[in-house]
Structure formats: C-alpha cells, structure tokens
Design goal:
The protein is α+β, with helices and mostly antiparallel strands. It has one domain. The protein is 39% helix and 17% strand. The chain has a two-stranded antiparallel sheet. A hairpin with a 2-residue loop joins strand 1 (24-26) and strand 2 (29-31). The longest helix has 8 residues, at 3-10. It is elongated and about 35 Å long. The N and C termini lie far apart (36 Å).
C-alpha cells in the first residue's frame, strides 16, 4: 500500500474540507462554492 492510499484510507476528506468551506451533496459527489 502506498503512502497516498494509506492517507485516503484513514482520512475522511469530506469532513476535513468542511472545516474550511461549506459542502453540498450533489448526487454521489459534493460541491463547494468557488473561492474566486
């Protein structure tokens, strides 16, 4: 297992990103407002 795969397995990326920007569920994915 590579380092990247190990990080992906341990980290809930949605929860991490939601600390910084609001996310909305859009089907199977999430959407965030454009920062620009």
């Amino acid at each position: 297992m590579s380092v990247v795969d190990d990080i992906k397995a341990r980290l809930d990326i949605v929860a991490y990103i939601q600390q910084y920007t609001p996310l909305k569920k859009a089907g199977r994915n999430y959407k965030a407002p454009c920062p620009f």
